[in-house]
Amino acid sequence: MPPTLRWQKSSFSAGDSDTECLEIATSPTTLHLRESDHPAAVLSPAPTALRALFEAVKRRDVA
Fold this sequence. Notes:
Elements: E1 8-9, E2 22-26, E3 31-35, E4 38-43, H1 47-59
Antiparallel strand pairs: 1-2, 2-3, 3-4
């Protein structure tokens, strides 16, 4: 049975009237992502895919 994930959201999401945010959880070998308004849809990207996502966000090259 997989471990229970402890989800965290950015402190930038706190106190805002907009409740939609990206949440993150870690397990020993994987980083997990989900959108707060769709918590059942969990992404567990490979490290190379996650790195590409972070690099695109840094470049602001995402929609």
